[in-house]
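Q: I'm a student working through a structural biology exercise. My instructor gave each of us a protein and asked us to get a predicted structure, then write a short paragraph describing it. Mine is YqaE/Pmp3 family membrane protein. I'm not confident about reading structure output yet, so if you can add a plain explanation after the C-alpha cells, that would really help. Here is the sequence I was given:
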Amino acid sequence: MLLAILLPFLSFIVRGKIFTGIICLILQITLIGWLPAAIWAVLSLHNERANKRTARLIRAMKENKK
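A: Happy to help. First, here is the predicted structure for YqaE/Pmp3 family membrane protein. I'll explain a few features afterward.
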C-alpha cells in the first residue's frame, strides 16, 4: 500500500502491469498528476485484492456443493 502511495508507477510494474505503469509514470512526472496517479494505484490495488478474494470465495462455494 505504501508503495502505491509513494511510487504509484512502481506499484503497477511490480504487479506485472508494465504498460499501465509507464502511463502512470508519465502522469506522476507532473506535480499535479502525482495525486491522481497515487489514487489510481491505490484503487487498482484494492480492486485486484477484491477480485482475488471473490475468486477464492467462488472456489470455496463450488467445493462445498460437491
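A: Here are two points you could use in your paragraph. The chain has one domain: 2-65. The CA atoms of residues 1 and 42 lie 7 Å apart. It's a good idea to check both against the output above yourself.
Q: Great, thank you!
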